[in-house]
Amino acid sequence: MKAMKKVIRCATVAALALALTITAVTGNTTGVATEERPETELEKNGIAGVAVVLNEYENEAADVLRENVSVEKEEIDVVAASIEEDAEEATIEVVAEETLTPEEEEWQDKLMADVDDYLCVRAKADKDSEVVGKMYKGDRAVIKKEGKTWTKIESGNVKGYVKNEYCVFGTDALEYAKKNCDTVAKVETDGLRVRSEADVNASVVKAVGKGDKLVVDTKADEVEGWVAVKLNSKTYYVSAEYVTVKLDTGKAITIAEEQAAMKKAAASSSNGQTTTTSTAPGNSLAASADEETLLAALIQCEAGGCGVECMTAVAAVVINRVHSGSYPNTIYGVIYQRGQFGPASSGRLEQRLANGVSSSARQAAQAALAGSDPTGGAKSFKLASSGHAGVVIGPIVFY
Q1: Which of 204, 334, 380, 398 is the most exposed place for a label (fewest CB within 10 A)?
Q2: What is the pLDDT of residues 36-80, one digit of tens each?
Q3: Alpha-carbon distance 257 to 385, whole Å?
Q4: Does domain 105-180 have CATH number 2.30.30.40?
């Protein structure tokens, strides 16, 4: 608009100059007394002089137009570049969303409790509200409504609120689970054979039933069609066709469920051979928080995924040794006695301690420390497939 005004002014001046020139040529006067005046371009150079003047005005107008058109073009280019940049950023964001794996997509509405022990789930988004349940380390929840400070969740039979600062969300929760939880292979058929090698002709170590869970050896080399599993600290293989591999995350428990589980574990009995249960007060053992955690870590390494009863039995073996007089008289001494527990010598126990223990392992350790002994006083255990006589609980025989 400014450019057009300048052009109009230049054109007006040129028109006035032309009018004066025409007046001079035709000799028209106004009757005003004449006086000396400078020579005009017309008088000096005739029509050519007028043309020069007009040409100068024309050049000036063209320069103004070019200058403003150039500025407007630069502004247009800047706007176009900005739009293009925004579009590019939007494209990048869309691509980033599309690159999520199916597993990551599944976890976008999930969270994990990032705690050493447990996280209280409250009835309302208030630190003074009633505790309706607990999420132990390794437990997962579905996000119902995420807020800035509190998030409404659902996990197991627990519905309530957890404080965000003690949780990890979405993809971060998935990575946390991979670091802190076992990966298990859930058996989908009865009589699945666990083999010594990834080969259909390899010897059979044992057979497992539908619904059983085997801890996956995530550090073993992948073999197409097979899943490496850990049994008694050794690596074996099962056909991938008959198992479902997933992270063994836990669920929150209500306060009532927690109390009931403790009572059940303390009074549990096995369904295996020569089953007896001892819950005599003399078999209980006082332990520090660190000893309890160490015991829970060991039984998770030895029997994680085999059920609370089986883990309680492994813990009972440790406690029975402490009481026996034939082994070291402390939990630490028994667990780290040379040549006794594979996880303690292989480094797996330290890794589990660093990553934290599951709520089920901690419950089993607490039950055994309270006196629960599904083994009837056993001080040793091995794979049930060995054929050794004793109390069979899950895939392990205790004797």
Answers
A1: 204
A2: 555 555 455 555 555 555 566 556 655 655 665 565 556 556 555
A3: 34
A4: yes
